[in-house]
Amino acid sequence: MTAHEGATVLVVEDEPSIADVLTIALRYHRFEVMTAGTVRQALTMAERTRPDAALLDVMLPDGDGRALGRELRVKQPDLALVFLTARDAPTEIVGALSFGDDYITKPFNIDEVIARITAVLRRTRPADVLPERPPLRYGDLELDETTYSVHRAGRTVELTPTEYALLRFLVRNGGRIVPKEQLLRHVWQYEHPAESTVVETYISYLRRKLDALGAPVITTRRGVGYGLA
Length: 229
Fold this sequence. Notes:
Layout: E1 8-12, H1 16-28, E2 32-36, H2 39-48, E3 53-57, E4 59-60, E5 63-64, H3 65-75, E6 80-86, H4 91-94, E7 102-106, H5 110-124, E8 136-138, E9 141-144, E10 149-152, E11 155-157, H6 161-172, E12 178-179, H7 180-186, H8 198-211, E13 218-221, E14 225-228
Parallel strand pairs: 1-2, 1-3, 3-6, 6-7
Antiparallel strand pairs: 4-5, 8-9, 9-10, 10-11, 12-14, 13-14
């Protein structure tokens, strides 16, 4: 079984034609799908049937999709969150990425939507139960590969699944500089990396959380990529 087979996706989109296209495509790829057109409907559905992932339009008739995503994540910390936003309004999503996992701009390619959700679920919903494994360590960082928890200097660092996946890849590469394109392929599962600010955005979130507990640990090689000091 793949990481996503049988997974339930909550689609929150108030435009019926878009919701229909997403629903048909997701079901074709063996997802279970629930749809909602408002914040109120989405909260009711999520309470009744805990989804594995939520695909949220940022602009909803009775509220903000970002606020909805934050509320859903509080109630279900392991929920994968992917946001839909207008192409001309990327700033809408910056705050949401501090707790969400990915975003897709409209108009979108349906194959990209399926690929993004599948990639997020690989990070948040492993296909098999993993055996206990020794923690990954780098300096004063410790990543527990069984519980997916992170500590720095013995103190817990609260990370989203995508932040954890990014930090784990950097730790596994030790002090080497990892090119941005490689991060997009291995962390976000982008088969054909294009221009995207998602890496820079998540690096900034990691820095903010890790630097609060010690000296700066993530280094930047401008025009190349990122590594650990």
